[in-house]
C-alpha cells in the first residue's frame, strides 16, 4: 500500500510540474518575471527530500499504517480537493515558482478570497498527514520544521513581488485575511 500511495503522489507532483512549466512559459511570453530564485532550489530540495525520507523511514523501520490511518488520510484527501480548488482558481497564474505578471490583477476568488496563501497551507497539511498515515513521525516532524523555515523566506518574497508589480496592495489593503503579513 505504501509504495502504491507514494507512487501516485509522485506522479501527481510530476503532473503539477508539467502544469507549472506550461504556465511559466505562457506568463513569460506575456512579460512576466521570476522572483525568489535564490530560495527556490532549497524549496525543491526540501520537497524531494520529503519523499526520500518517507522511502527510508517507512520500509527501514517497518512502519505500517496506523490503526487510525483514516483520520490523516481523510485530511489528506480534503487537502487534495483544496489543491484542485487552488489550481482552478489561479488558472495560468498557478506555479511552483514565484512568477509575476506586472500589472496583473491578483486572483481574489476561490480560496484566495479567504486566505492569502492557501496552497502553502495545503502543502503543510500534506507534510503532516502523509507521514502520519504510516506512523512516520520523524519525517512528519523534520519536514514540518523545514517547511516552516522555507515558508518564512518564500511568503515574504512572494508578497513583496506581488506588492511591487501587481494590484495586490490595493486589492487587499485593509482587508483582514488569514496569514501572513501586516494588516491594519
UniProtKB/TrEMBL annotation:
Pfam families documented for this protein: ICMT
Gene Ontology terms: biological process: methylation
MF annotations from Gene Ontology: protein C-terminal S-isoprenylcysteine carboxyl O-methyltransferase activity
InterPro entries named among the record's database cross-references: ICMT_MeTrfase (IPR007269), Metal_cation-efflux_comp (IPR052527)
CC terms in the record's Gene Ontology section: membrane
Topology term for the membrane: Multi-pass membrane protein
Protein name as annotated: Isoprenylcysteine carboxyl methyltransferase family protein
Protein species of origin: Fictibacillus marinisediminis
Amino acid at each position: 500500500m505504501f509504495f502504491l500511495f507514494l507512487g501516485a503522489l509522485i506522479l501527481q507532483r510530476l503532473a503539477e510540474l508539467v502544469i507549472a512549466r506550461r504556465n511559466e512559459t505562457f506568463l513569460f511570453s506575456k512579460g512576466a518575471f521570476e522572483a525568489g530564485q535564490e530560495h527556490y532550489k532549497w524549496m525543491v530540495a526540501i520537497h524531494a527530500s520529503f519523499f526520500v525520507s518517507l522511502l527510508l523511514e517507512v520500509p527501514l523501520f517497518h512502519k505500517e499504517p496506523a490503526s487510525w490511518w483514516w483520520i490523516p488520510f481523510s485530511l489528506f484527501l480534503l487537502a487534495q480537493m483544496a489543491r484542485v480548488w487552488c489550481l482552478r482558481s489561479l488558472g495560468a497564474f498557478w506555479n511552483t515558482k514565484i512568477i509575476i505578471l506586472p500589472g496583473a490583477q491578483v486572483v481574489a476568488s476561490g480560496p484566495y478570497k479567504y486566505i492569502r496563501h492557501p496552497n502553502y497551507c495545503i502543502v503543510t497539511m500534506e507534510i503532516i498527514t502523509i507521514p502520519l498515515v504510516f506512523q512516520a513521525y520523524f519525517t512528519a516532524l523534520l519536514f514540518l520544521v523545514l517547511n516552516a523555515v522555507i515558508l518564512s523566506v518564500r511568503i515574504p518574497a512572494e508578497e513583496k513581488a506581488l506588492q511591487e508589480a501587481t494590484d495586490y496592495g490595493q486589492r487587499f489593503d485593509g482587508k483582514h485575511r488569514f496569514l501572513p503579513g501586516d494588516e491594519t
